[in-house]
Specification:
N-(1-d-carboxylethyl)-l-norvaline Dehydrogenase, domain 2, globular, alpha/beta, Rossmann fold
């Protein structure tokens, strides 16, 4: 039974994943490579909760109770007694490999290890843990922003047990998510749809058909999306977007060739909201 959850990676995605569990009463451990970075993750959670207070969705007392369920740490060994550990570090295989090897050695035998990778094969990631752990390794790809979006792709690896898949699906439902079982292919389901769409949106701008602002209006007022695709890309950050594009391009070829616009943004340091500028300038807002 899953009672205590760990999240490795206290960036926006990791912090929000941990928040999802803490909101629903789970004791949660949020880790990063230093205590300072982990603390910043909890600050991000507090900022999200403050917005919810302003909207009347929760009270100050709720915020305090939720944050009290989150322990932040720069020591991976604090994950030792967690029942489920979700990795949410950089989308680079070698970095994830290092995390999984350490977790495999630290965590109890019954612990489930999950990856929030958005594109890397779960079976390949599962190869980084011992044979005894492979049945308890799975993919859980949360949709960004994780504290708001309900979708989570559940991706069993080749050797993932059905018991593990069912346990993870059940706990995701407990935290008010909509889990969808997806085959272990590069990019899974969400990113194959999303990247095909956003690459076409980039072509519309490159060809002068319409501006980025107008594409976002089409998404919001024509397709019913909560935000425009370029605004969303600025949130997910363009270094990650480009990295995923390259992974998809390697797997599927021309249909996922990276956009020159995204490459230019990355080369210029305009990585999105986190740097103050991407498709939009946030310092002017």
């Amino acid at each position: 039974m899953i009672k205590k959850v760990g999240v490795v990676g206290a960036g926006m995605m990791g912090a929000e994943i941990a928040l999802c569990f803490a909101r629903e009463g789970y004791e949660t451990v949020l880790n990063d490579i230093s205590q300072e970075i982990a603390d910043r993750g909890k600050e991000k959670q507090a900022a999200i909760l403050d917005k919810n207070i302003k909207k009347g969705r929760i009270t100050e007392e709720d915020k305090t109770a939720i944050l009290n369920r989150v322990t932040v740490t720069g020591n991976l060994e604090d994950m030792a007694d967690c029942d489920l550990i979700i990795e949410a570090v950089l989308e680079v295989f070698d970095i994830k490999k290092s995390v999984f090897e350490k977790l495999d050695a630290i965590c109890k035998e019954s612990a489930i290890i999950a990856s929030n990778t958005s594109s890397i094969s779960i079976t390949k990631l599962a190869s980084t843990v011992r044979a005894e752990r492979k049945g308890k390794f799975i993919g859980t790809h949360f949709n960004s922003p994780a504290s708001v979006m309900k979708l989570v792709e559940v991706i069993p690896a080749l050797l993932t047990s059905e018991e593990t898949a069912e346990a993870v699906t059940a706990v995701l439902k407990e935290i008010q998510k909509e889990p969808v079982r997806v085959k272990d292919v590069v990019g899974f389901g969400l990113n194959r749809i999303f990247h095909a769409m956003y690459l076409e949106a980039c072509r519309l701008v490159e060809e002068g058909v319409c501006s980025a602002e107008d594409v976002d209006k089409i998404c919001k007022y024509g397709l019913g999306h909560p935000m425009g695709i370029f605004a969303l890309l600025d949130i997910t950050s363009h270094d990650l977007n480009l990295n995923v594009d390259r992974i998809l391009f390697k797997a599927y070829g021309e249909r996922f060739r990276p956009s020159p616009q995204i490459i230019r943004l990355v080369d210029s340091g305009r990585l999105g909201k986190k740097t103050g500028a991407g498709f939009y300038n946030y310092e002017e807002r």
